Amino acid sequence: MVTWLEQIPGELLPAIPLVMVLLSLTAAVAIFPLPENSVKLRAGINLTAAATKVLLIIALVPAVVADGARPEFSAPFLPGIDLVLRVDPLALFFAGLSSLLWLLTTIYALGYLRGSKNKSRFFGFFSLCVTATVGISFSGNLITFLVFYELLTVVTYPLVAHWGTPASLRAARIYLRYALGGGLAVLIGVVWLSMYVGPVDFAEGGAEGVTELVASNPVPALLIFVLLVGGLGVKAALFPLHGWLPLAMVAPAPVSALLHAVAVVKAGVFGIVRVLHDVFGVEAAAELGVLTPLLVLAAFTILYGSYQALRQQEIKKRLAYSTISQVSYVVLGVAMVNVLATTGGIVHLVHQGIMKVTLFFCAGLFAEVIRAHTVSQLRGAGRRMPLTSAAFTVGAFGMIGLPPTAGFISKWQLGTGALASEHPWVLWVLVGSSLLNAAYFLPVVYALWFADPEDVDPETLASGDAASDAADPLRVREPKSLLVPALITAGLTLFVGIAASLAFAPLQVARFIAEGVLG
Amino acid sequence: MMLASSTGALGALVEAGLLGVELTQVQWYLLLGTAVAVIGMVRMLLTRDLVARLIALNVTGIGSLMIILALAARSAESADPAGSGPGIDPVLSALVITGLVITVAFTGLGAVLIRRIEGFPVTGRRDDPESGGPAQDPEAEQ
Amino acid sequence: MNAPMSLTLFCLGAVVLIPLLASALSVLLGSAARRVLGVLTSAAVLGLSAPILVRVTSGETLELALGGFESPLGITLRADGLSALFLAMTAIVGAVVSCYAAARPAATGKRLVAQTVEPATVTDGDHRAALTEDAPAAWRTGHAGFWPLWLGCWSGLNAVFVSGDLFNTYVGLELVGLTAVALVALGGREAWAAALRYLFIAVLGSLLFLIGVALIYSVTGTLDIIDSGEAITQLAAQGDADLAAVVLALCLISLGLALKVALVPLHGWLIPAHSSAPSAVSPLLSALVIKAALFVLLRAWLWVAGPLPELEILAWVLAGMGTAAILLGSVMALRQSRLKPLIAYSTVAQVGYWFLLLPLLLDPETSALEGQPGTTLEEGAVLAGALSGTVALALGHGLAKASLFLSAGHLKDLYSTDEITELRGAGRAHPMLVMSMGLSAVGLIGLPLSLGFSGKWLLATSAVAAGHYWILVVLVAGTLFSAAYLLKAVAPLLVMSEDDQTALTLPQAQNHPGASDRTLTGKAQLAPFLLGLLTVLTGFLGVWLTGVLEVGAPW
């Protein structure tokens, strides 16, 4: 198969990952100095950059996955250490998720922030945030990863603090505290590890020299592993390092969506997958005896997060705890070390992102249009906002793992993987978690569709954006730019579930990656 | 800084090869210089009076320059054991002269500052309304 | 690309002489002409530093004997990697701050004028007279004395950086000290006491340094930095008893310079001096003036003394003081309620980082990793890494702290207060200032990308390689602390609204008469932003910096 990649002259190949990163960086640099009122120009820059990136990644998928092309860019950074950007399937997988959701979240945010202040700052940092995420995904060694990982910490701070209220500043401060602490742990791990083995280039089956290190010096190797995974676990919101996440939901809805589905939490999990697969390698990790503790930790986090979610009345908080639980599926999958479970874990990286972003979009819509923040305020919302409610329902079903949604595919893979692994008990964790998921999502769905609206706040009936429909006084029309992204992601949730066996569907790419790692 | 002075004194003692040995002229000067410098430093740290402090600083300076002069004499001695010539190292002398000039410059600046500070007593408030505002009556500040 | 050698050597002399001449010339000019001259001079110094940096980067050490005399009495100028880097940083920060000061004359201090019909005609000497006659006097912003003092200070800084012998180093240090004290005094009444305190410390430090230099000379017979270093190495090889004098000299030099660089517990003078100095002066003091002392300290320890085992106790004492500085400075910074003292304490904390390398210098074995499979460390990498790390930290601090002090001073001038609680929400009106503060915070905390990160990385890796794990612990603690106090300083500025959506009331920006009103909101804000941006962008220079430092390195 001749792909377009082969037609590019060889010396331009290294530019591909660089262009990916620079695309959103340029957008950010262009957006910052824009005056507040140049709405169209800002939207144009944002959408062009986001759409270009999505197209580039789609074009890259066949070449990288099927033909094994690995465009790579490197530049000297510190003595003996280069900044390396490399496109490999896992990188592409994560970058694809982030750029697709960047596009949708941007559309959503354009509508969401209409009329509010500081939009240039918001979208500037938003683009920087995506720059960092794409940089994380294309990082070819641990130090490059670290650079973008810390960049992500810094640029999400102004986003979380965006409203500038004391509550959001407090949340942002706590977030920064957690993230910097975690980043520092990762930094120490990286310094230590690179003293032993040099720049720690990511490679399937473990970075060069790490296997030898594990064999000769198991104690430092173990400590390094704990530092790395512990540090990454902060962003990944692994128990007991998850405290910042439920607080961070004071951020604007698009930021929450970005945080939970694409950027921060996912960056942490992605890092754990990288460390496990491409730094230590699963065999060395097994030799260190860290896989089972990690598995137990992930399993506990799943149940804990679900249990906490059950106790929340506020929708965004419930979603936040649900994220804590769901993201640990990824760690659970990769810690079981077989192709089925690893596929399940990696594919959940994308599936959870799509589903969670749907839910946050909808939560934002409910909050904006009918001022519904708690579960009880959602009573009867299905009649008032049927499309939003439908999208929410799809997302919720996905989270529970009902067929034919994306969530079902992940859970099925994880479940069969658990049975095939040495830890069949994990299946019960999955079952228990699914029951808990159902227990906290189904009441919401029930409230949406089957409960009677108690007393409709007259203000929301005639409030600005939500013009009431003449036919049904209760029916409100959602702003298009908020509704469309939610519907698209809801559609995607169904689509990747139904069409999971298509070539280059997330499931297939995830399986390809898992097979590459596990032989 | 007490530590500094004592190490300085100790060093001079070591330098002079003291402890029971009869002192040469150079060694006497070393010792004297150290003593003067230490006394000046102690006074400078203990006094609150600004002018006394400035004078103590000068005493310290003279002590240090004495030490250097003594070193100059010594190194000339060792360089020229025959003892001919006045016996002062030119480089170190140049150092002393420069040191003197600079100390004088600093003393002048210090004197100006002290005069200003004492001619314009501290205002009651820590953060006086800054510059640029409407003209302020100095009486209001006093 | 490369200028001819003779031209480059001319530049070496000119970076010292041109600011000095400009300083003398500016005394004769009116205040508007001084501003023009200042900006022109800073452009000239920037232009003259560039060929030196290029030359040195290409691997040559530059040397120039001024006036044809050879050492010891002649003036030898020498530029190696260390010189070139400090020279470049000074040129950049100096030029940006000069432009800021030219754009905002009000930031250069304030002077007391008698309220006569024509206040401009009253000169400095008349203060006293005005007071004794009980004539109404008033503080006026802007002090044209800034320009001759700052240009002289710049000349002194460059003299320290390119000096080839200890004598000229001393003269340069004194010039810096004298002008810096006077610059602090530009800050008005409450700055005078701080300036005086600074003066005592500066002179005391210089005297100790001078005695140390004299001791070195009496042992080695030369003041040239490289020659004396060689002589001491020979003495050490012979096992001569005179090494005691060298150790004593190093003690005195280190103590004197520690006073000037404000190493804990000798830091008391820095807080009032740096925080009460005018807005355009604080950045110069914090970013540049204390760097001169640091530079000389590095020269003394690495070039003159070399790794004498006898210095071990002193090295550990200084490193201990450095650690104490990081901890104490950070804790004190956290306890401040005003912006400028907080930043001043942050300087005290950051100073500590530059002393951590001393024990590494005496113990540069890669012992901890010997025999490890796959270790990529080369021989001698510890020394190079530790020095590059420290220099990167110092240069990064220069850029970041200049930006931070400029922003803080600007805010203080705007709202005539730097109480953090009263500045809540200032970021709404001045996003660019807050952005600069954020960028410099990234550099000071040492997050990637920034020169601070590269520095911490280099220092940490050398420490691990040499088995000095304690440095790692100190770095981690320092990083966490700095994040905490900088967040404390910056976060309140970001407040947009209270929770109940009520509008936030800021202290009213002062009504500056005439032009200064515009300068506070105008282009002057670009200066801290530019420096903040440089803080981050220089994060890519880690490799280059290590390479440049190899030029003329003592190993």
TrEMBL record, chain A:
Signal peptide as annotated in the record: none
Record-annotated NADH:quinone oxidoreductase/Mrp antiporter transmembrane domain positions: 139-435
Recorded topology in the membrane: Multi-pass membrane protein
Pfam family, one: Proton_antipo_M
Highest rank taxon of the organism: Bacteria
Record's GO cellular component terms: plasma membrane
Subcellular localization: Cell membrane; Membrane
Annotated keywords: Cell membrane, Membrane, Transmembrane, Transmembrane helix
Residue ranges crossing the lipid bilayer per the database entry: 12-32, 44-65, 90-110, 122-140, 146-163, 175-199, 219-245, 257-276, 288-307, 319-341, 353-373, 385-405, 425-449, 482-505
Major location (coarse): membrane
Assigned protein family: Belongs to the CPA3 antiporters (TC 2.A.63) subunit D family.
UniProt-listed PANTHER family: NA(+)_H(+) ANTIPORTER SUBUNIT D1 (PTHR42703:SF1), NADH DEHYDROGENASE (PTHR42703)
Name under which the protein is recorded: Multicomponent Na+:H+ antiporter subunit D
Natural source organism: Nesterenkonia aurantiaca
Automatic annotation (TrEMBL), chain B:
GO cellular component, one term: membrane
UniProt superkingdom: Bacteria
Alphabetic keyword roster: Membrane, Transmembrane, Transmembrane helix
Annotated InterPro entries: NUOK/Mnh_C1-like (IPR039428)
Keyword Magnesium appears in the UniProt entry: no
Primary site of residence: membrane
Membrane topology: Multi-pass membrane protein
Residues spanning the membrane: 26-46, 53-72, 92-114
Keyword Kinase: no
Name listed for the protein in its UniProt record: Multicomponent Na+:H+ antiporter subunit C
TrEMBL record, chain C:
Parts of the chain that traverse the membrane: 6-29, 36-54, 82-103, 144-161, 167-186, 198-219, 243-263, 284-301, 313-335, 342-362, 382-408, 429-449, 469-487, 526-545
Protein's membrane topology: Multi-pass membrane protein
Residue ranges annotated for the NADH:quinone oxidoreductase/Mrp antiporter transmembrane domain, each copy included: 163-357, 385-481
Pfam families in the cross-refs: Proton_antipo_M
InterPro entries associated with the record: CPA3_Na-H_Antiporter_D (IPR050586), NADH_UbQ_OxRdtase (IPR003918), ND/Mrp_TM (IPR001750)
Alphabetized UniProt keyword annotations: Cell membrane, Membrane, Transmembrane, Transmembrane helix
Record GO terms (molecular function): NADH dehydrogenase (ubiquinone) activity
UniProt keyword annotation of Transmembrane helix present: yes
One annotated GO biological process: ATP synthesis coupled electron transport
Subcellular compartments: Cell membrane; Membrane
GO CC terms, sorted: plasma membrane
Signal peptide: none
Family that this chain belongs to: Belongs to the CPA3 antiporters (TC 2.A.63) subunit D family.
Protein name: Multisubunit sodium/proton antiporter MrpD subunit
